[in-house]
Amino acid sequence: MGVYSLPMSENMDSLKSHFNIGGKTVLNRLAVQPMEGADGTADGAPGELTVRRYDRFAASGAGLIWFEAVAIRHEGRANPRQLWLNADNLDEYKRLVERIKETAVEESGVMPVIIMQATHSGRYSRPDKQFEPVIMYNNPLFEKDNPLPAKHIITDDEIKRLEEEYGAVTRLTASAGFDGIDIKACHRYLISESFSAFNREGLYGGSLENRMRLFKNALDNARHIADKDFIITSRMNIYDGFPYPYGFGVKEGGDTEPDLTEPLAVIKETGLQLLNITMGNPYVNQVNRPMNIEGVERIYKLTKQVKDKFPDMLIVASAPTFLKEKSPFLSAGAVEQGYADCVGFGRMAFAYPTFAKDILDGQFDRKQTCVACGNCTELMRGSYAGCAVRDPIYTKLYKELLEARAANV
Predict the structure, then answer these.
(1) How many angstroms separate the CA atoms of 171 and 165, rounded?
(2) Domain ranges of the chain
(3) Nearest C-alpha neighbor of 231 from the set 19, 17, 23
(4) With respect to CATH, is domain 13-371 assigned 3.20.20.70?
(5) How many whole angstroms separate alpha carbon 346 and alpha carbon 327?
(6) End-to-end distance of the chain based on CA atoms, in angstroms?
(7) How far apart are CA 118 and CA 409, in angstroms?
(8) Long-range contacts for 25-28 (Cβ within 8 Å, ≥24 apart)?
(9) Closest CA to 190 of 245, 251, 137
(10) CA–CA dist 62, 104 (Å, integer)
(11) Residue 175 · residue 233 · CB < 8 Å
C-alpha cells in the first residue's frame, strides 16, 4: 500500500475462524454493519424494502449481522420512515428476525448472530416532515451564528426518563428474537453528542464522569433487563474529527488531532465484552466513511490503539469498503495482525450482498464491489437507501430523485 501503513494479508484463513460472545458463536470474522434503509412504515415496522434488504444481508454469509439503527421513541427517529420498535409492532420484528435466520441458513449455511442498534437521533431527529432537533448543547460548528432555541436542549430530567427507555427497548429487543442490543453511541446522535458536552451544566456536562453518564446509565438499564446470554454492546465513536471543546477523542488545543485518552477511559468504564468501533459524523465529515486512503489508515490506527489497550475485548473494525477489491486483504490483515476480531462492511453490503460468502470462498468479484460513490447516502436523504450502481431497484429510485430535483430547480 505504498507509504501507507495498513494491515494487509492475502491469507483469508483468519476470517474463517469463529468466536464466542454471550453464549453464542459467531461463525466467521465478517459482519454486516448497521446500514439504515429509511424504508420502514409510518408506525416504525419493517417495510417491504426493509424485508428485501435483510433477505439479501442474510444471504451474505456474514457471521454477524448488526441490524440497523432502530429508534427507541418516535421523537428520536431520524426520518419518518426510520424503524422504531414498540409494543404495537413487536410481532413484525419477530417475523423479520426469524426470516433472517432461516434465510441465512438456507442461502449460506451460516446462522448469524443478530444485534439490533437502538438509537435516539438527537440533533438529527426528524420524526415527521420537519426537523425537530434534540441536543445536549448548542454547537457553533453546526449552528454557526444561529444557535438553536433553548427548548431544543434536553433537560436532565428528560435524559433520566430516556435512560429508562433503553431498559424498556432492551426487553422488546430480546422478545423480538435478537441476540443482543447496541446502545448506539456514534456519529453525533444524542449519546455520542453527550461525550463532548464540555460546556453543558448539570449532571450530564463538564467532567468526563458527567459526560459519560447517559451512556453508562443506558447500558446499566439494558443489563438489568437482559438475561446473562443476551449481548449488550455499542457502536461507539472514539474520534469525532472536530476540535475541542466540540469534539470527543481530540487533543485539547490540537485542532482535530486524535487523542484517545477519554474514549479509552469511557470504554474501560463500560465493561463491555464486544465493541464496534467507528468515528466521525456522516452529516458533516467523511471520517466514518473515508474518501481517501489516509482516512482508512486513521481508522485502523486508532482501532488498533483500542485493541492494544483492551486485548480481551472483542473489537469490530469498520470502513474497509473504500479499498474496494482490496478490502478482503485489509479485513484478513486486521484480524491476523491483531487490529480487531471482526471486520464490518457497510456500503459493500448494499452493493454486493454475497460479499462475505465470496470472500471466504476465495471468489470475491471486483465487478460487484462498491465503488464508494456515496450515492447510497444521498439516496437515503432523498427517499430510500440502497446501491444506486449495482441494484436496479435503487438505480431507478436514484434516477427519480435526480429528476425530481431537476424539476424543482
Answers:
(1) 10
(2) 13-371, 373-409
(3) 23
(4) yes
(5) 12
(6) 43
(7) 37
(8) 25/113, 26/63, 26/64, 26/112, 26/113, 26/342, 27/63, 27/110, 27/111, 27/112, 28/61, 28/62, 28/63, 28/110, 28/356, 28/360
(9) 137
(10) 9
(11) no
CA–CA distance, 201 with 221 (Å, rounded to integer): 24
Whether 33 contacts 75, CB under 8 Å: no
Hey, how many other C-beta atoms are within 10 angstroms of the C-beta on 257?
Answer: 13
Q: Using alpha carbons, select from 234, 230, 112 the residue that is nearest to residue 176.
A: 230
What one-character-per-residue DSSP string does 74-108 give? GGG-SSTTS-B--GGGHHHHHHHHHHHHHHHHHHH
Give pLDDT tens digits for 174-215.
999 999 999 999 999 999 999 999 999 999 999 999 999 999
- Phi first, then psi, for residue 151 (nearest 5°) are -60, -20
Q: CA-CA distance, 315 to 342, in Å (whole number)?
A: 6
Task: List, for residues 60-118, the tens digit of each pLDDT value.
Answer: 999 999 999 999 999 999 999 999 999 999 999 999 999 999 999 999 999 999 999 99
